[in-house]
Design brief:
Rossmann fold; alpha/beta; disordered C terminus; 424 residues; eight-stranded parallel sheet
Length: 424
């Protein structure tokens, strides 16, 4: 497994800071190259955002990105970044996958693509066939651990592990890929997502923005907000958070509110089941299912803690990184984020921790973690949040991720080492 190198860091007053960009070395291919990026949708999921991020990185370095997907709200971001958007119904219908494979082969030929990069399983099946026909490298990116309820699902998911290079968003996902499919470590690369530290900067958030959100949620000044961010899906574990809220009430805790902020696509019965659980546990007074929030930086600032109770491997959730960037303590299940995303005891001493971890699905352990956090002095909680901000600022910036991505493509396509300011 290769965790690709980040830019060199200097030290000022004992703290790591990036050296000037002109001193940084990247691996840059000898000539600009073209990548065909295939993703099922561009609506805003982790893979969708990853495809846009890859487009920005490639175009900014002087290369070409052609993105194929169903149209979505992020399609404009692709074109704004300088990529070419080609609409296509990238579905998991077998006939559509065959038709798309033929179409992608033609597109890769016409655009003279040097590699094909797939985000998502339906995209990967068609992209893999096209890459073989064009005899170009096939790359896949994993942003979560797919469920494997049966043998069919295992075989369907397996295409994501068949890339000439398989990109995992975290060490946790890399280990899952190796363990499930036996993918050799030398074909797996870990490249995380990046966080916009200008947008998610606690110093930039005004009191008025925070109070506007708390008022919209009906939060009193003394109420501690437990924020759960992410789409309303069973794998995100919202039901675990509801049961933990019930336990907090049973322990006599007051003045807290659990706010669910995320898109509900209405594709399953899970939202209805959640409401039934809220009613049956008598937690209506401490649960808010809020609409998606445009100002997520202010939402994190309005929270006392950000929780991910995921019940299947989530890789590297942007919400958890964003929350830490906003200097908020986080509590995550052991499937929500690995030790490369959140520093928790016993992996690190408590003097270095950026959050707490609990066993997936264990609502009692989640409640206990919340009690522990809320029992800490305010100054101690503030230090935890500050360490989280520093951790994200060091490891998950756009510059760090861009350098790792270009290094990876340098390895895939053949490269020579050049100073970054000489890359055309």
């Amino acid at each position: 497994m290769s965790s690709l190198p980040a830019p060199e860091l200097a030290t000022v007053d004992g703290r790591p800071v990036r050296k000037a960009q002109s001193n940084r070395l990247q691996l840059a291919p000898r000539a600009p190259f073209r990548v065909l990026i295939v993703v099922p949708s561009l609506d805003g999921g982790a893979a969708d955002a990853g495809a846009v991020e890859l487009t920005r990185i490639l175009v900014a370095a002087g290369h070409r990105a052609i993105v194929v997907s169903r149209a979505g709200r992020l399609a404009a971001d692709v074109t704004a970044a300088g990529g070419k958007f080609v609409p296509l119904d990238v579905s998991n219908n077998p006939l559509a996958m065959i038709r798309n494979a033929i179409g992608l082969t033609r597109l890769a030929r016409d655009e003279k693509c040097d590699a094909i990069h797939a985000f998502g399983r339906a995209a990967a099946w068609s992209a893999a066939w096209a890459a073989r026909r064009r005899r170009v490298p096939f790359v896949t990116s994993w942003y979560k651990g797919f469920r494997e309820q049966n043998l069919f699902k295992h075989r369907y998911n397996r295409v994501m592990a068949r890339g000439d290079r398989v990109v995992a968003v975290s060490e946790q996902i890399a280990q899952l890929i190796h363990d499930r499919y036996g993918t050799p470590w030398q074909r797996i690369a870990v490249v995380p997502s990046s966080i916009d530290l200008e947008r998610f900067d606690p110093a930039r958030i005004t009191h008025a923005r925070v109070e506007a959100l708390r008022e919209a949620w009906g939060v009193k000044p003394e109420t501690k907000v437990i924020l759960v961010s992410g789409r309303i899906l069973r794998r995100k574990g919202h039901h675990v958070a509801v049961r933990a809220a019930r336990r907090l009430k049973d322990m006599g805790f007051k003045d807290f509110l659990c706010v669910f902020v995320g898109e509900d696509r209405g594709r399953s019965r899970y939202t209805g089941e959640l409401w039934d659980l809220v009613l049956s546990t008598d937690t209506m007074d401490v649960i808010r299912m809020a609409a998606p929030v445009a100002d997520m930086a202010a939402a994190y600032a309005a929270a006392a803690v950000v929780v991910s109770a995921a019940v299947q491997p989530e890789g590297l959730q942007r919400a958890i990184l964003e929350a830490q960037a906003m200097a908020r303590p986080v509590i995550v299940s052991d499937l929500a984020a690995g030790p490369d995303a959140v520093l928790t005891p016993p992996a690190v001493p408590e003097s270095r921790m950026t959050g707490l971890r609990f066993p997936s699905g264990d609502d009692a352990a989640l409640a206990a973690a919340l009690v522990r956090l809320f029992s800490m002095p305010e100054g101690e909680r503030r230090l935890i949040g500050q360490r989280g901000h520093e951790w994200v600022a060091e490891h998950f910036t756009a510059e760090v991720v861009a350098a790792q991505t270009l290094h990876l493509y340098g390895e895939i396509l053949g490269a020579e080492q050049k100073p970054a300011d000489q890359v055309q």
